[in-house]
Amino acid sequence: MRIDILTLFPAMFQGPFSESIIKRAVEKGTVDIHIHDIRDYSQDKHKRVDDYPFGGGAGMVMQIAPIARLIDKLKSERDYDQVIYLSPDGKRFNQKEANRLSLCDNIILLCGHYKGVDQRVRDQYITHEISIGDFVLSGGELAAAMVVDAVVRVMPGVIGDETSALTDSFQDNLLAPPVYTRPSDFRGWKVPDVLLSGNNKLIDEWREQQSLERTRRLRPDLLDDSDMP
Q1: DSSP state of 139
Q2: CA gap 196, 118 in Å, rounded
Q3: Using one digit for the tens of pLDDT, what is the confidence trace for 100-143?
Q4: CATH architecture of 167-224
Q5: Helices then strands (H, E): number in the chain?
Q6: Phi, psi of 131, deg, nearest 5
Q7: Per the omega criterion (within 30 degrees of 0), is the bond before 183 cis?
Q8: Whole-model pTM?
Q9: CA dist 15 to 18, 42, 102, 145, 219, Å?
Q10: Read out DSSP for 84-99?
Q11: Which ranges of 3-79 does DSSP label H, i.e. alpha helix?
């Protein structure tokens, strides 16, 4: 997969993308990530990419011209499955969407800033809009980094134990069950006996029951769209 990220602040991705799973995925060649500075496509001598909104109002708006030049250049070089805009009013990002995007060959992520991008960018170029929650960030960079992490980690070969990703929270509209490791008794706080029993059938039943109970208690909204009892 190739991911092209369009941003005003390329340095914001250095930390998240130089560690852990994303770094390993890049080194393996599983994902190819390219960061593009939108200012490089401004024809203003000061590399300006924003202007006042028509009709007045507070804040600034990202201009269409630099973004259009950059997207046109990328699309002339390859086909893209999705051109995604990170926006507070986009579709709520979830695990199902991460799984879907992981099957794409090429995607573009556009990071907004200020009061957003000129609406014509959204009308003419964007195929999909994503929000990571009902709150506003200073820009789309952190949201883009989260989307990339969620997408990359479910791609085949990225995680050593691929079944680990399949048992994560939200994969089946349920939260993950509690997990424990050694020691089995710490300060009198003990691991549930069933997990030490060696009975895989009972362990699986316990985990399923715990997932369902946790979801009903903490995130009952997830069950609204589920076939679970």
Answers
A1: B
A2: 58
A3: 999 999 999 999 999 999 999 999 999 999 999 999 999 999 99
A4: Orthogonal Bundle (1.10)
A5: 9, 9
A6: -120, 140
A7: yes
A8: 0.86
A9: 5, 26, 22, 10, 31
A10: EEEEEEEEEP-HHHHH
A11: 14-17, 20-28, 64-77
